[in-house]
Amino acid sequence: MEAESGGDPTAPAILVLGAAGRIGGLLRRDWPTLLPAGADLRWQARRRPADYAAGEAWHILAPLEDPATLVRAAEGTDTILCLAGVTPGHGGDLGDNARLAEVAIRAAQASTRVSDRKTRVLLASSAAVYGNQPGVLSEEAPLTPANPYGVAKAEMEAQALRLGAEAGVAVTALRIGNIAGLDAILGGWRPGFQLDRFADGTTPRRSYIGVRMLAQVLAALVQHRGLPEVVNVAQPGPVAMGDLLRAAGLDFSLRPAPDSAIPEVALEVTRLAGLLPPDVPLPPADPARLVAEWAALRDES
Question: Which residues neighbour 299 within 8 Å (Cβ) at sequence distance 6 or greater?
């Protein structure tokens, strides 16, 4: 099943894979007002979500099982944004992350052959590729993933960048930090929630980005031609998970951090800030503001 797409041929044409997921829901909510009028937005999922809106162009298919239909869905696009993938705790083969990247690149290659537009691929990667390293991590930092998910995302990046170079398709890996409200801390909070406490009394610190900020950043990146191969995506400055839960008014208790716990993952975002237009500033991550964006999203749902 495919939806017909059309619109202004000079406006951005974007196919979002995995659009029924949580990030896809953010983009479907915000992108119609963040992207230029006439933007050709195409949404892919294995099943159309219950909250779909009238007029949305949906392509219902399984990319790994039906790559030919994916190719047709991608024809005439500027960008394929691949949000589809396998995450920890949801079952599935983590190797599918690399396989989904491959079919997206093949679809972009095929689209470029039959269209006057050159299609590129943006891949949702993760800060998990950095593992446990001290200091602020730039895109040039070595990849030392500390868990199977980080390993799978690092392998996805390497394979995709290699295949993209062979296929003549520009590929950018977006190493996304924690998304406030879609994470395992703020979004995963339940009564009796516990956080690790390190010997210095701190809770884990991570680079975060707000839900509305993420939609704005991704809208800017899909319109930017000439992206580098890797971009960290977060707001400046790591946030302590305890501070985030306190800002949300959510109770938690502390437990001794195990030896395997990672105290801090802090992403360097100078490259990202340089890619954003003046009307999309990248403010430091503030727990209260992150919580406010998440609360507004829940109120609108």
Answer: none
